[in-house]
Amino acid sequence: MSATAERESMLKLNDVHSYYGQIHALKGISIDVKEGEVVTLIGSNGAGKSTTLRTISGLLSPRQGEVLYKGNNIAGTPAHKVAGMGIAQSPEGRRIFPRMTVLENLQMGAFVHGKVDPNDLARVYDLFPRLKERVSQKAGTMSGGEQQMLAIGRALMASPKLLLLDEPSMGLSPILVEQIFSIIKDINKQGTTVLLVEQNALMALAVASHGYVLQTGQIILQDNAKALLANETVRKAYLGEE
Amino acid sequence: MNWTLFFQMVIIGIATGSLIALIALGYTLVYGIVELINFAHGEVFMLGAFFAGTVIGLTGVTSENSTIQIIGTLLLALLACMVFSAVLNAFIDRVAYRRLRNAPRLAPLIAAIGFSFILQNIAIYWKGPNPLIAPKILPREFTQYNILKEWAIFGGYFDDKFIRFMAKDVLVIGITIPLLIGMSWFVYRTRIGTAMRATAQDREAAALMGIDINRTIQVAFLIGGALAGAAGMVALIYNNSARFNMGFQYGLFAFTAAVLGGIGNLTGAVVGGLLIGLIWAMSDGWMPTVVPGWGAQWTNTVIFSILVLVLIFRPAGLFGKATTEKV
Amino acid sequence: MAVSSVQARTEAFFAERKAESNDRLRKVLIGIVVVSLYPILDQWLGFGLLGSLIPILMYALLAMGLNIVVGYAGLLDIGYVAFFIIGAYAQAFLTSPNSFFIRQGLVPGFVQNFWVAMLFSWVLAAIFGVLIGAPTLRLRGDYLAIVTLGFSEIVPDFFTNAAGITGGPRGIGQIAKPPAIPLPGDRSISFSSTDHVSWFYLLLAVGVLTLFMVTRLYDSRMGRAWQAIREDEIAAASMGIPPVSTKLWAFALGASFAGFAGSVYSGYVQSVYPDQFQFSLSILVLSMVILGGIGNIYGVLAGALIIGSFDRILAVKLTIPLNALGRQMESWPGIFGDLGSFFATHSLTADRFLIFGLALVLVMILRPGGLFPSKQRAAEMKGDDDNFEFDDYETNQTVRSARRKEA
Ligand SMILES: Nc1ncnc2c1ncn2[C@@H]1O[C@H](COP(=O)(O)OP(=O)(O)OP(=O)(O)O)[C@@H](O)[C@H]1O
Ligand SMILES: [Mg+2]
Description:
The complex is a heterotrimer of chains A (about 240), B (about 325) and C (about 400).
Chain A: H1 2-6, E1 9-20, E2 23-34, E3 38-43, H2 49-57, E4 64-69, E5 72-73, H3 79-84, E6 87-90, H4 102-109, H5 118-127, H6 129-133, H7 144-156, E7 162-166, H8 174-189, E8 193-198, H9 201-207, E9 210-215, E10 218-224, H10 225-230, H11 232-238
Parallel strand pairs in A: 3-8, 3-9, 6-7, 7-8
Antiparallel strand pairs in A: 1-2, 1-4, 4-5, 9-10
Helix pairs in contact in A: 4-7
Chain B: H1 3-34, H2 41-59, H3 67-95, H4 106-127, E1 132-133, H5 140-143, H6 147-150, H7 167-189, H8 191-201, H9 203-208, H10 213-239, E2 241-242, H11 246-260, H12 266-290, H13 299-313
Antiparallel strand pairs in B: 1-2
Chain C: H1 2-36, H2 38-45, H3 50-72, H4 81-95, H5 100-103, H6 114-136, H7 141-161, H8 163-166, E1 181-182, E2 188-189, H9 196-219, H10 221-231, H11 233-238, H12 243-269, H13 279-293, H14 297-330, H15 333-336, H16 339-345, H17 352-366, H18 375-382, H19 393-406
Antiparallel strand pairs in C: 1-2
Helix pairs in contact in C: 1-9, 3-9, 3-12, 3-13, 3-14, 4-6, 4-7, 4-12, 6-12, 10-12, 13-14, 13-17, 14-16
Bound molecules: adenosine-5'-triphosphate (ATP) and magnesium ion.
């Protein structure tokens, strides 16, 4: 507790409201992600988890509220500028560039830097050896799990300060899910702050230090990860316990 | 069968085909990235041709001047036309299409049709409704110069009655090929070209990579416009005239070429352009000698039928799914 | 989920629309009465505009037909003139003594009558609508637009080039006009090209009939299906609405009304030749539909009136004061330079397509539903451009990939 209190806040959302046309998708979200933490957002389908990430990364601009990144309000800043500030997102559904090769996709990840840092590339290959084997394969022809690795690897190529991961475990086999979560831990240990959106609440809360529970665009619960794991509502709704 | 005529038409077909390819690339680049049939593209080409007339006229250089001056003027005019049409194309995107990025896809298409009419009328204000005659900049000896007859390596075997491979044809191909090479270098080797390809594949993911989508789209319009401007200048010199309504026919022929090659596919657009150029030349010049009753008046019908048939039966183009890299 | 919400919305919408359309009907009847009194007014005040109103009424016929295709079914047809040509030539083939088919003895005598031939032309245009529509309506919207354009270039080319049958560039003359209607006494109503009053009422009658049919269609099951397809083809298909045949109906009916207008036109001008019909006519009619209010038949009629009267009346009339102004300005060359002589000799008729082009662009940008929008059509054309550029990009992407799979 005392350790986190000293840490700087890296990302802070204050009463954020986002819309898709008439649809009010976020109804006043406030979250706080401290430097060096892994924070997770959990919630059922359509709760607004992806929308929160899209609002942070600038794909969507909120109609109301603040998105403070390192103390500056970046709400409404276009996505390409947000990317330049050190925020990388691995979007829902992977969204890799299908007609580019694996290597080209990774190079795209480093687009903000202009050129590829060999250390970043080495780190990604280290975390995902499979990608190294497939460097010249067209990304669109890879399996779902491989594409997921590529999407995360691509986000890492930006060597971000803050990494937004949208359901990184989706569509992966159980062993790979374990691996992905331990990789997330590694990434975090190497100094990247992570905001993690997950369906797999158990795993997410295991790696995270803090968690928020979203429901229909609002935060209904927040606590440190251990407490949430023990929380009855969470256990019922998201861990499938009766 | 008249083989002389046949090969003559092949040469003409390649020359006009490379011109069409330049225009087709503009359709394909823009479609690849924003999925819009830029209906006003033919008019951007036509205004490029008009602008070439003005620029060459302003320099005052004529066929009387020295060769260096003539070449310099042609290069200057080429550059000027490219800049002019590039800016015009990007301007249209800025004032109209960009505002309609999220509207249903028919909205920007309708706006593009509107622009096509606006630009034709501007052209009429500018140069009048009658054909504009190209300034006399190429010396007569040059326009009449038949490489096959004059060059020693052909051993004086060919005379003017046989196939003519005119210096003018070389000029067209000589301008087109470097532009094509330059463009593919740009798209495949530069940072902004990479951004274009990424944007074409997944706009949102590209934005997340730090790519400024609007600027990238603007660059696609700039390049497409520049190629159309170059084509305009070449067409003016090659055909010796230009008219306010030429953009409609060239534009549709070029669009047909782009569709034939698989829209969004750069190599396809070039191949399609050459094919359409060949078909055009054959239907105009050669077919009348083999098919009784055939005449140049059927060319439009043939090309539009190709357009319709390809769209119906092979909407992904002749090369179908096995396309090489898209934009 | 999407399906049921579309369905519910559609049901509610239709209930509301029934009530609205009864209310409308009263207004329309009043409108018709007013318009039908116009010839008397014209004569009293000596406007002499009846002759110009006839083409405007024809535009209105075309615009109502195109509105079925573009407005109701959401299919962008930019080669609509093709069906107009087919109707016009069909009328010529069936009734002109110069017609190839009549000379070959292929047209039975009873068909060689204006009214009978009109029915045939109407049906023939619809058949062509099916022939062109059936293979192409699977295509994506923008490709369909280009196919219609290609087709509308081929058709007049064919009529120009197949001179043995079509009379080539000079076309066909002596097309039948409607037989004179005998009145009690020695008088009769005749339909030569100078009988503006008879033609005015004939066209008005045809127009009212068309309006009646089109509004009935819109309120029918078919109209409902068109709307569903236009809003969301995939959801509609999963509700059991067959996309291709539904679109085909719209396309063919739209074509039939163009053929109808073409045959009346042919009887009015009494000679047809390919140069009368150009791509620009398709765009003229399209701009009526879009300016007036895409999908709203009354808006479309207003669009036809606005654009038609500019095309046929105002461009000419307004040129007179413009030229006068120009001559005044010419005496101040220091201030106006060449502008004076430009205005003094400039004819606004030359600017018509500049203005229609501008209308298309401006309406799309500023008022996508047109001047008199149909409520839900306006919302659709606008798209959800709330505050982010890619708001519905993802949705589009999903819809697109679904379409691709389907194709
Ligand atoms: N592009 C869009 N247009 C309209 N509504 C949208 C769009 N994207 C999301 N929504 C709506 O916004 C709400 C929140 O969606 P969001 O994608 O943020 O949910 P989520 O929590 O990520 O769900 P999931 O776990 O299924 O990914 C949902 O009701 C959804 O229907
Ligand atoms: Mg989500």
